[in-house]
Amino acid sequence: MWQSAALLNTRERPASARKVRTMRIARFMCSLLLAVGLLTIPVQSRAQVAVGISVRIGPPVLPVYVQPICPGPGYMWVPGYWAYGPDGYFWVPGTWVEPPEVGLLWTPGYWGWQDHFYIWHAGYWGPEVGYYGGINYGFGYTGVGFFGGYWRDRTYYYNRAVTNVNVEVVRNTYNTTVVNNNTTINRVSFNGGPGGVTARPTSREMAAEHQRHVSMTNEQTQHQQAARSNRTLLASVNHGRPDVAASVRPGQFEAHGAMESGRPAGSNRPPENPKEKNRPGNPSSNDGRINPDRPPTLRTPDAAPANPAIEQKHQQQTDRLRQQQDQERQRLEQKHQQEQQKLQQHSADDRSQQETQRGQQQQLQQLQQKHEQQQQKLQQRQQQERQHQQKPAQPPAPSKPHDGKPPAQQ
């Protein structure tokens, strides 16, 4: 009996070995087919599947800026965002672009916190606006959905309440007030993690994720590459306040057609009456600015030409304030770097790192608020000086003769 059992086991072993080899071959073939299948996916689709860049340090807050006027019918607004390159974060200015197809809308990309990293989720074109991390990019992108316009019968209609359009050029417009239900309006540029936005995708946004997507156009790609090669757009250079925050057309980062950053928090809106503001013959939509080379935060848009000496004095005050703020920001960044180095040297756990990063984010936001208040106070003081200087002098009263009669004509 035991001989028969031993013989049976001997006969079964080769069969089991053959089964193992067969399963291994099958797994190898499946992996090979999967790899080939991924290679055959179109480039645009693979761009959406790819997770993208991962960074340990979160991006700066979104700068505040004025939207340039729409160049013509059919152009759609792509809000600015922080991208990452070999030299760190750099700002990609918002701009007007033509969609790749009629009927498509742009879903902005966003940075999301995952596995102790900030991961970039690329934007895309699709029939509906999907999830973009709950980031309030402005101009119709309130964090959930899009309220800047819609397609109807192959024509795109612009909401003048949140979009800067010239109604003499773009006639397919409407005006619907956009109410943001968020109780806290901030300019945080990432989702999750310490200090990040806590929004989660809605059912409609999740459904939009499964629709057909088209990655950003060649024009958008060239726009991002141009921003990457412009050192003034690096966060390490502009400290989160890029000189050019938006442009009329992709790649136009010069003064003509470019919009500066640093305005008060309510200024990412078009003029109240676009029909009057943008009427032909009136100054174009540079928000009424007289001196485009000066920071818009510290300049009144409706100021008349003033005394050159006062303007020079105000410019010096502005430069000193910006220099002072840059020094404070650099000191805070150096302090944060030292804290990060100490954590790495002591092999701190994830909880300690998260608490440190949360505190650093709060310190950066508090410093930013402090700087904005300083800018507003300086602007108000300078405006008062201009108004005082522009008051017309009262002419002296004519002297009366002693006898009460008018003086004789010469």
What does this structure look like?
Helix 7 packs antiparallel against helix 8. The protein is an alpha+beta fold. The chain has helices at 2-40, 43-49, 203-209, 218-228, 235-238, 274-277, 308-345, 350-390, and strands at residues 54-55, 76-78, 81-85, 88-92, 94-97, 105-107, 110-114, 117-121, 124-126, 149-152, 155-159, 173-174, 190-191, 246-247, 258-259. The model is unreliable at 1-15, 34-51, 263-304 and 406-410 (pLDDT under 50). A four-stranded mixed β-sheet has the order 1-8-7-13, with no helix packed on it. Strands 2-5-14-15 form a four-stranded mixed β-sheet, with no helix packed on it. The chain is globular. It has two domains: 42-304, no CATH class; 309-372.
Short characterization:
It contains eight helices and 15 strands. It has helices at residues 2-40, 43-49, 203-209, 218-228, 235-238, 274-277, 308-345, 350-390, and strands spanning 54-55, 76-78, 81-85, 88-92, 94-97, 105-107, 110-114, 117-121, 124-126, 149-152, 155-159, 173-174, 190-191, 246-247, 258-259.
What's the SSE blueprint?
Elements: H1 2-40, H2 43-49, E1 54-55, E2 76-78, E3 81-85, E4 88-92, E5 94-97, E6 105-107, E7 110-114, E8 117-121, E9 124-126, E10 149-152, E11 155-159, E12 173-174, E13 190-191, H3 203-209, H4 218-228, H5 235-238, E14 246-247, E15 258-259, H6 274-277, H7 308-345, H8 350-390
Helix pairs in contact: 7-8
